Amino acid sequence: MTATPARRGRTLSVALSIALATTLVATARAAAPEPPDTRRDQEGIAIRLDEREVRSAGIATTSIERERGEVELSLPGTVAIPPQQLRVVAAPAGGLVEAMLVAADETVTAGQPIARLRSPDLVEAQRQYLAALADDALATDRLRRTRLLWEGRVTPERELRIAETEASHAKSRLDERSQILGLMEMSEADIEALRNSRRIVSAVTIHAPMAGTVVSRNANPGQRVEAAAPVFTIARLEPLWVNIQVPAARLPAVDVGDAVVLPAYGVQGRIIRIGRTVDQNTQSAVAVAEISSGGGLVRPGLAVAATIRIGQNGTPQWSVPASAVVRHRDRSWVFVREENGFRARPVQVIAEAGGRASVRANLAETDRVADRGILALLAELAAVDQD
Question: Distance between CA atoms of 351 and 354, rounded to whole angstroms?
Answer without folding.
Answer: 10
